[in-house]
Specification:
Blueprint lengths: L1 E3 L4 E4 L6 H11 L4 E2 L7 H8 L7 E6 L2 H15 L3 H7 L6 H9 L3 H7 L4 E3 L2 E3 L5 H5 L10 E4 L3 H12 L23 H10 L1 H7 L4
């Protein structure tokens, strides 16, 4: 999660929704932008820390088709692996528990869907592949807490809206933290497709996503 006091801005970073690309533009244009300890914390968790200041921020998040998002997340993990060896040898990089969880427990995307259902206490906060994206932006009663939710599927236009509101027009998004994969539909069979539909039912209903 990113915060700027000068812009009174808060970015709720949901995994695999172009957050790293968005962050790169923000850091180039907002000098006091900084990361809060929980990279992918939920808005409700952060509101408890900010208290009465919460309402003074312009709060933004992006969402993505759940079936597509899970394919992108899985393939990124498989491509990048983990940083354990690199960190030990160089002292650089950050060990990522949720990546290692996937690497240790799966040999295929199908296994990923079936087996990776735990909540992981990672080095930068709690993570789960089965949090609905609404969980990141809603309070404990299910009410949306952020001011603007952009869509990955309409990324350039929606990011432009945020940039204009922040007074940083003219910026374009770089392509960061991407993964290479086929069309997401090809990764699913009927059962895994339906399982994602069940687990992400609230996202699918609220945002109108379809397979």
């Amino acid at each position: 999660m990113l915060i700027s006091e000068s812009k009174k801005f808060l970015f709720v970073h949901i995994q695999k929704t172009a957050g790293r690309s968005f962050e790169a533009v923000l850091k180039d244009n907002i000098p006091d932008l900084k990361s809060l300890p929980g990279t992918h914390d939920h808005a409700a968790w952060v509101k408890e820390e900010l208290g009465d200041k919460w309402d003074t921020y312009y709060k933004v998040a992006f969402v993505r088709n759940p079936w597509d998002r899970l394919v992108s997340w899985y393939t990124m993990i498989i491509e990048k692996g983990n940083t354990t060896w690199y960190k030990r040898m160089t002292g650089l990089g950050k060990y990522n528990k949720i990546r290692q969880y996937v690497l240790d427990n799966t040999n295929s995307f199908e296994e990923f869907i079936y087996k990776c259902v735990d909540t992981i206490d990672d080095t930068d906060g709690k993570k789960s592949f089965w949090y609905n994206q609404l969980d990141y932006v809603s309070d404990h009663n299910g009410k949306v807490m952020v001011d603007y939710i952009g869509r990955f599927e309409n990324l350039v236009e929606d990011a432009g809206t945020v940039f204009r509101n922040l007074g940083i027009e003219g910026s374009s998004l770089p392509h960061k933290n991407s993964s290479s994969h086929r069309n997401y539909r090809s990764y699913y069979n009927d059962h895994t497709k339906d399982l994602v539909a069940q687990r992400y039912a609230r996202d699918i209903e609220y945002f109108g996503y379809e397979f």
